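Entry 12.
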Amino acid sequence: MGKRTRLDIIGDILSAIQDKGGRMKQTHIMYKANLSHSQLKSYLEELLDKEFIGTVKGKHNEYIIMKDKGYEFLEKFRQMKEFEKTFGL
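Predicted 3D structure (tokens):
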């Protein structure tokens, strides 16, 4: 397995959030997606801009939440990965 692509990393971030019920702290995403803090910030900014994710304030923390567009992307991304695997690409 080679280096992860940009799309793989976005998929990892969104999968991590989805696996936690659609809501997760930034630091937990950073560890789950295996990213540095600066890498995470960059990806989260892009995903916020594209409205794949949003933020919500909890009692003591800010959480990253998955939006409909993020769920749609993740579904299509997984289909694409399955397609690649099916055809050995």
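Annotation: DSSP finds four helices and three strands in the chain. The mean pLDDT is 96.
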